[in-house]
Amino acid sequence: MVAAMRRYQTTTLLFAACLTALAGFVDALAYSSMGGFFASFMSGNTTRLGVSLATGAGGDARIGAGLILSFLSGVIAATVVARARPRRQRVAVMALVTLLLGGAALFAPYHPAIVPLLLLATAMGAENGVFTRDGEVSIGLTYMTGALVRIGQGLAGALLGDGPRWDWARHLALWLGFGGGVILGARCYGAYGSGALWIAAAAAAGLTLAAQATQRDTA
C-alpha cells in the first residue's frame, strides 16, 4: 500500500511538473509576441495595468485588463467543467485547455495578436482547475511565487530540524518545470513564430491523455 501510494505521488508530481512546463512554454510565447504581457503571470499583468493607468497608456491598460479577465474566465470555465465531470476532472479540464490552445493556434495567422493571446490567458486560467480539492486549487500550476515561498519555508524547516527534510523538493520540481518550459517556449517562438502555438496545443493534447493515468477525485 505504501509503495503504491509513493508511485501515485511520484506520477502525480511528474504530471504536475509537465503542466507547469506547459504553462511556462505558453507564457514565453505570449511574452515574446506581445512585448512583455503574460498568459499565466497575472501579477505581472496587474503591474502592467496599474502602470499603464498611471501613465495614461490606454492601449496597454486595455490589454492588461483583457488578459486578467480572460484568465478569470478560464478559471470559472474549468470549475464548471470539473464539477460537471467529477470522476474525470483532470481529463475534462485538460481537454478544455487543449481546445483553447488549439483555438489560439488556429486564429493566430488570421486575427490581431490580442485574440490568440486572450485565448492563451483563458487556457492558463483553466489549467489551474486540474488539481482541486473541495473547490480549492491544491497545486498551483501557472504561478511560481507560491512555489518559491514553499521552497524557502521547506529549506528553513529542514535546516532547523522541525520539518520534513525533502518536502521542498517537490515545489522545486514545479519551479524547474516552469522555467524549462519558458526556455523551450522562447526558443520555439524564435524558430517558428506563432506556429509554436501548435506545439503547445499538441503538448496539451498529450497531457490530456496522460491525465487519465493520474485521475483521482482529489489531488
Report on this model:
This protein has 219 residues and is an all-alpha fold. The chain is built from 8 helices and 2 strands, in the order H-H-H-H-H-E-E-H-H-H. Strands 1-2 form a two-stranded antiparallel sheet. The chain starts with a helix and ends in an 8-residue tail after the last helix. 40% of the residues are buried.
Main beta-sheet strand count, sense and barrel state: 2 strands, antiparallel
Give the fraction of residues assigned to helices: over 70%
**Total beta strands:** 2
Strand order of the largest sheet: 1-2
Terminal Cα span: 17 Å
Q: Give the DSSP E fraction (strand runs of 2 or more residues).
A: under 5%
What order do the helices and strands follow?
Answer: HHHHHEEHHH
Mean pLDDT metric: 89
Give the C-alpha Rg: 18 Å
General form? globular
Can you count the helices? 8
Structural class: mainly alpha
Identify low-pLDDT runs: 1-8
Question: How does the SSE layout of this entry go?
Answer:
Blueprint: H1 2-34, H2 42-55, H3 58-84, H4 89-107, H5 114-127, E1 132-133, E2 136-137, H6 145-160, H7 168-192, H8 196-211
Antiparallel strand pairs: 1-2
Helix pairs in contact: 1-5, 1-7, 1-8, 2-3, 3-4, 3-5, 4-5, 4-8, 6-7
Task: List its traits.
single chain; 219 residues; mainly alpha; 8 helices; 2 strands; 75% helix; globular; disordered N terminus
Describe, in short, the structure shown.
With 219 residues, the protein is mainly α.
